[in-house]
Design brief:
The chain contains 3 helices and 7 strands, in the order αβββββαββα. The chain is an alpha+beta fold. The protein folds into 2 domains: about 30 residues; about 140 residues, Mago nashi protein (2-Layer Sandwich), CATH 3.30.1560. Strands 1, 2, 3, 4, 5, 6 and 7 form a 7-stranded antiparallel sheet that branches. It is extended, with a radius of gyration of 22 Å. The protein starts with a helix and ends with a helix.
């Protein structure tokens, strides 16, 4: 009888630990609490739609369309587009503090600022593809990463890069509507 009492008392902390840890492990989002008001961030995100142009013996890769998103620490956003060599008028906007804190937390908690800025080799037979660039300045530390689409490189593009890319693409689609 006494042994079952010990088992029940011993099981209570285990059950409590499971109840606490399961939601934390299954949650796929970075907590916004990771960002604080003292963090200073600036993000410059560039997307190039590239096309390889052949001149007989020589080849050149040129940008068909270039999009630049600049996010300042206060939430000010500037979006610029150059299409076929012609710039379009800039779009200025502002993102809310919740979205900005989500970006800060994503970059801060995942170690994005520490990712080495390695180069990704593009296949020789790739003729049209997208190449992206993110330059993040967080509290004075700067990291700049360039990467192509996954289908034109044999290198593995880390998921954190695609997570940041997805968040920034959502901001672009929202302000360019």
């Amino acid at each position: 009888m006494v042994k079952t009492g010990y088992l029940v008392l011993g099981a209570i902390p285990v059950i409590a630990a499971i109840l606490i840890s399961v939601p934390l492990l299954t949650k796929n989002e970075i907590p916004i609490s990771a960002a604080n008001s003292f963090d200073k961030i600036e993000i410059e995100y560039t997307k190039h739609q590239l096309k390889k142009i052949s001149y007989g013996v020589t080849e050149r890769v040129g940008a068909q369309k270039t999009e630049i998103l600049l996010i300042k620490n206060d939430g000010d956003v500037k979006y610029s587009v150059t299409d076929q060599g012609y710039p379009k008028p800039d779009i200025r906007s502002k993102i809310d503090e919740v979205k900005l804190n989500k970006l800060k937390a994503l970059i801060k908690e995942t170690g994005f600022i520490s990712i080495p800025s390695e180069s990704f080799v593009v296949f020789d037979n790739a003729t049209e593809y997208q190449k992206s660039n993110v330059k993040v300045t967080l509290n004075g530390k700067v990291n700049q990463i360039h990467w192509p689409e996954q289908n034109v490189t044999s290198n593995f593009i880390p998921p954190i890069i695609t997570m940041v890319e997805t968040e920034l693409d959502q901001i672009i689609s929202k302000i360019s509507e």
